[in-house]
Batch of 2 targets.
Target 1
Amino acid sequence: METGYLVLETGDVFEGALIGKNKASMGEVVFNTSMTGYQEILTDPSYAGQIVTFCYPLVGNYGINLFDNESAKLHLEGAVISDLCMAPSHYQSIKAFSEHLEANGVACLTGVDTRAIVKKIRHHGTMKAIITQSLDKSLMKSFVHDPVFNTSMVKKVSVKKIKQYEGSGPHIALFDYGYKKSMLDALVNAGCKVTVVPYCTTFPEIQSLNPDGVMFSNGPGDPAALKPMLPEIKKITERYPSLGICLGHQLIALAYGAETNKLLFGHRGGNHPVKEIESGKVWITSQNHSYVVTDKSIDQEIFDITYVNVNDQSIEGLKHKKLPIETVQFHPEAHPGPDDTQYIFERFLNTIRNAGEMKHAITY
Ligand SMILES: NC(=O)CC[C@H](N)C(=O)O
């Protein structure tokens, strides 16, 4: 293995061993506190443009299997690991983490003090970083010119054409902003027919599919980058029972006039406690996001706040007061992390079953 470096925007340099892609890789450095689930994290499209620091010290010990991919590709820009296991042991393992990254051209720096990196991120916030083989000065200049931080990555990860999955239950249009397969699985396993649609699908295009409900998926980047789509999202949610998850939640809130802001270092992990306001119950949730809906920007004439984060009181869920629209910031589909909040999918499907008459409530 060759020597490599993680260089942060602050100028801090961490030396380690480089595997995967041997040239420079740039992204926004974030950290994830999950103890397992590295394969799901590698393939979650919401990590596009990011370098993920794994907080759990041992990664790769159970290898890579055929079942845990959340999408067909690895989307992250790079991985930073304390202790990478090169000889995995698990009956389902088909290859090692290092082989998987090498085959997919993703840079990985291992043998670094990830605790020190996490401390930097917690203090300065998520920031630009490079995984590199050389400490060439010209590389550092590219921090200033990185397009990744200015454009929407949703376009890159979304399907280009609609894709259908047959089922005998309700028909759901699933907006693909970079959806995780577990989200599709939750619907298909419940018997739904699912039509996955590109991120830029308009209201008339959704109407022509005649769905019973619409789901707005997770996805990478700043939700504000999808501003041109907000009027369409508003019309769609006024017409069809809707569920928004993570980026989908943020977009629905924006469409109804709320604002989003960026947390200092986000929530990424498998044990984020979230309080359900109505029942007072605390659910342990899977999370992966930087942005949140700004609480003061929510019009409480339009939305009830349904969930809040126990650690920082940030908004974790909304419910429209009149229309069947529900949104959650966390990931009920889990993978990785606990599936305690899977009931949100069941509730959505029950809402659809009870909402038949609403179809004609608002017409255009
Ligand atoms: N997982 C997601 O959908 C993330 C949403 C958004 N990209 C954020 O970071 O907040």
Target 2
Amino acid sequence: MPNRPFPHLNTPAIAHPLVPSSAVKKREKENGENHGKSLPVRNFLGAVAFNNITRLVFGKRFMDSEGVLDEQGKEFKGIVTNGIKIGASLNMAEHIPWLRWMFPLEEEAFTQHGDRRDRLTKIIMEEHTQARKQGGGTKQHFVDALLTLQDKYDLSEDTIIGLLWDMITAGMDTTAISAEWAMAELIRNPRVQQKAQEELDRVVGLERVMSETDFSNLPYLQCVAKEAMRLHPPTPLMLPHMANADVKIGGYDIPKGSIVHVNVWAVARDPAVWKDPHEFRPERFLEEDVDMKGHDYRLLPFGAGRRVCPGAQLGINLVTSMLGHLLHHFRWTPPEGMKPQDIDLTESPGMVTYMKTPLQGVATPRLPSHLYKREAVAASF
Ligand code: HEM
């Protein structure tokens, strides 16, 4: 398998996937002063998504508990940022052929980027190989799973590196964007926010933090995540597909070889299949259980068929977890002087659709203070 880039997701979805370490330190100091302040929600979600993915894929948290990046983390961040930059030019050149002359594919820049990415990934792969050799107690992260299966499935090093980075680019911004849209809807709809918090208080209580095992008892929270992904699928046109045969759909001829985009955004807002499609009303999914992992064509934020998102359940769990923690720990309101309905839901156009105006929110704690302590997480295997 070639080392496939992920151009659709390489758009600048989260402008700052990491909160700069200096900003985090400052934030730590100012913790008390944040009370009542309007916060850039995207920055925090971007940092959480980054940590989630690097821990899943590499078993590493490149940030310490203070939010400071280590050397590898800085290099990793540089590679992600550069990928976003050069990926955007590839997007344009691929999708608007008559503009290609304006966006030369910059082969040299791609080669350099690939080399830099491969260099770092190989170092991390070697660390995992050594750790596995040295002790049986190592955890099975995605990189270990691939390295263990390398011989059995004849996986080249290029393939492994490509798969690792597919996970990183596909799983990071999508989850952070989904959570940001959901939080925007929750601040705009205090009724929904309160109902989700009442459920959390009933199920989790006020003396511990939520965990993934609580999800099955939090049906309304799950509906909130689903309703957010119905109205705001992060990849509204999915990934480009190619017709492998001549087909006729809805009276249109699609010749073999055509590049096809499915507008899942429009399908999920179609008044012919959704009642009050523009209303953010999670209850609709309590009334009717609609699958969102590729089986019900009214709701396809993860696509469908053999190229369906392989990280769908993981993505749902990550978004549900972010929302659950944010709602359980804090009551969220708009910045002072702004009404909930004035939150700007304009989309920034692109293959990945993020909020044009980054969400700002005021967080008021709801739990006892000892539940806000930062837990140090081991940055090793
Ligand atoms: C809310 C979160 C997510 C959303 C909305 C989402 C959505 C999508 C969509 C729409 C596709 C294209 C499907 C198609 O064209 O038919 C896709 C592909 C993909 N996603 Fe996700 N995704 C999410 C999270 C994740 C996560 C967490 C991972 C892994 C860590 C992941 C890994 C992938 C990969 C590897 C592909 C490419 C599959 C292929 O080309 O065969 N995604 N995703």
